[in-house]
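Troubleshooting entry. Yesterday's outputs looked truncated, so today I'm pasting the complete records for two proteins to confirm everything comes through intact. If either block looks cut off, that's the bug. Protein one:
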Amino acid sequence: CSCKDCLIEAKSDYLRHSRARINAYRALASPSLIALSSRDPILTAFQLSWELRRLSRIEKEFAIEYRQLREQVQTFAVNLLDHIRTSQELRIILNCDPLWFTSNKNERESLNSKMTTPGDNMDRIKLAIEFKQNQFVAHPSVQQILGSVWYSGCDDFGRKGPIFQFFLVLWYSILFPIHSIALLLAPQSKLGIRASKPFVQFISHSASYLFFLCK
């Protein structure tokens, strides 16, 4: 950083200062230290990985060391996902709100219901994308729950044959005006709820765009 102590140490012995910084980050990147000292190990791993990415660009002479530490931290976050046993545990992790760790009992109860709801909030995945945690997002468990959210309302779409999939997409494409009206006028109706699903919305948007191009 640009504090007075760091500037003095950098001027007196730059190599020693850089080595001391690398050794400090080696300690901070230790999986044992993160697991024992952090209330939210995954968030800590994301933030530390982003900091190591920044340092690898600044300290070009030691870029390899910082990249190795970043890879170690990313692997730690991914390995935590391997210990998940149920879909509910995975939803709690992916919907986890950092405010839960500093909130009171009443606030935690409301956050608990939000974290266990099988919705499409997925704050942790959005955070992983923001911090460029590609390995975390690409984990099979994360991809499976993302697929379940994407195909909600059409759960058997992936198990059907290509002919059925084609006609289902065609049918939803034809119905996109009705779905749009239902979503605007009656969002809580059965048709409006179906129109709000991500997969149906994607087909409706694509169909409306193609209709616009054809005109």
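Protein two, checking that the full record survives here as well:
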Amino acid sequence: MLTAEDIEFYNMNGYIILKNAIPQNQIDICYKNIRKQVPSNNKLLNFWQNENTVGEIACDKQVLYTLENLYNETPVPFQTINFFEGTEQKIHSDLIHFSSDKQKLMCAAWIAFEDITMDQGPLCFYPKSH
């Protein structure tokens, strides 16, 4: 459940962290199904269209509820990207790759399938940059 403080934090900083939003057993099953499909380019694009466990997480009620409350709009999941190893990409903006009908309504939800440490090359984000 989002609090007024959560929404204010998001509006000020451009991100929010939801710990344990997806049940661990659901992540474990999804991860196992994804691992069967390791591609040579390190990523599966839109695998949610072929694998129900990915789609269930992409359309998770908690995630969609959070987005609806943050944006006051009905969220529309449209893409999944599953990586098997860190991409080691330099800091960049995805805005050039995506757009929405209404400006500033595109949002990414990153769900880690394992505990992340600095040694693994975690997602980097500059608060207030989005």
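Both blocks look complete. Sanity check on protein two: The chain has a mean pLDDT of 85.
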